[in-house]
UniProtKB/TrEMBL annotation:
Membrane topology: Peripheral membrane protein
The keyword Protein transport appears for this protein: yes
Function summary: Required for vesicular transport between the endoplasmic reticulum and the Golgi apparatus.
Chief location of this protein within or outside the cell: membrane
Coiled coil regions in record: none
Cellular location(s): Membrane
Naturally occurring in which organism (per UniProt): Electrophorus electricus (Electric eel)
InterPro entries (alphabetical): NSF_attach (IPR000744), TPR-like_helical_dom_sf (IPR011990)
UniProt protein name: N-ethylmaleimide-sensitive factor attachment protein, beta b
GO molecular function: soluble NSF attachment protein activity; syntaxin binding
Amino acid sequence: MDNSGKEKEAIQLIAEADKKVKSSGSFLGGMFGGNHKVEEACEMYARAANMFKMAKNWSAAGNAFCQAARLHMQLQNKHDAATSFVDAGNAFKKADPQEAINCLNAAIDIYTDMGRFTIAAKHHITIAEVYESELVDIEKVQYFGHNAHNNSPYSSANKCLLKVASYSAQLEQYQKAIEIYEQVGTNTMDNPLLKYSAKEYFFKASLCHFIVDELNAKLAVEKYEEMFPAFSDSRECKLLKKLLEAHEEQNAEAFTDAVKEFDSISRLDQWLTTMLLRIKKTIQGDEGDLK
C-alpha cells in the first residue's frame, strides 16, 4: 500500500474511532459497554497514528496519538496516556516543535504524578533539546528586556536548560552542567529583569567545578567576579570563598560552619545540599554530613 492508501485508511480509522467515542457517551452506549468502546477507539487512534507515521504525515500522527492519550486518561490508564503523549511529541517534533513540547509536558505531568521521576527527567531533557535545536538558538537570542515574561520561548528554553544542568550534575556529568550554568548566567547577567538570577547560576557552576577540582573552582570564581562584578558582593560568592579556604586547610568543621551560616539565612535545597556534601567528602577524615 502506498502512502496515500495508508493515509486514506488512517482517516477511515479516525472516523470510526470518533463514532465509537460519540456512541460511548450516549445514554444507551454508557449502559452497554461504554468503556469497551472507548478502549477500542484508543486502539483505532493508535493504529491510525502509526499509519500516518508511515505516510510521513507527522501532524496527523501527533493528533491521533493525542486523541488516544486523552481517552487513556478518561479510562484512568495513566501509563498508557503518558506513553501516547510521548509518541505524539515524537511525531510533532518533525512538524510542530511547540506542539511536541506541549505533548511532552503533558507526559511529564503524568509521570511526575505517578512518581516516575527518572522518566520525567528524561523527557525534560528532550524538551530542552527541542528548544535548543528547533526553537531557540541560545547564543544568538537577544532578550527583549522590558517585554520579558514567563511564557517567552527564551524564558522557557532557559528553564528547560537549567533542568538539564541540574540533572546532569546529579548524574555527575559536571562539565555539561557547568557549560549550561555559565551559558544561562552569561545570557541573563546584563538583563535588568533577570540579572539577580545570574549569581545563582554562577554559584552552581562554581560548585560543579569544586567537586571536580579545587583549583578549577578558584579560577572559576575569579572569572565570574570579573564577568559579573555584582557576584563578588553576593552571599553565594562569600560562601564559596569560605569553603575554598576550609577545603584548602582540610578543615571539615570550618566547612560545615560556613554552610550552616549560609543555610540559616538562605535555606539550602536538596540539589545544593547534595553538591556540598560531595565537596565535603573530599576533605580527609570527613564524616559525610553537614551537621
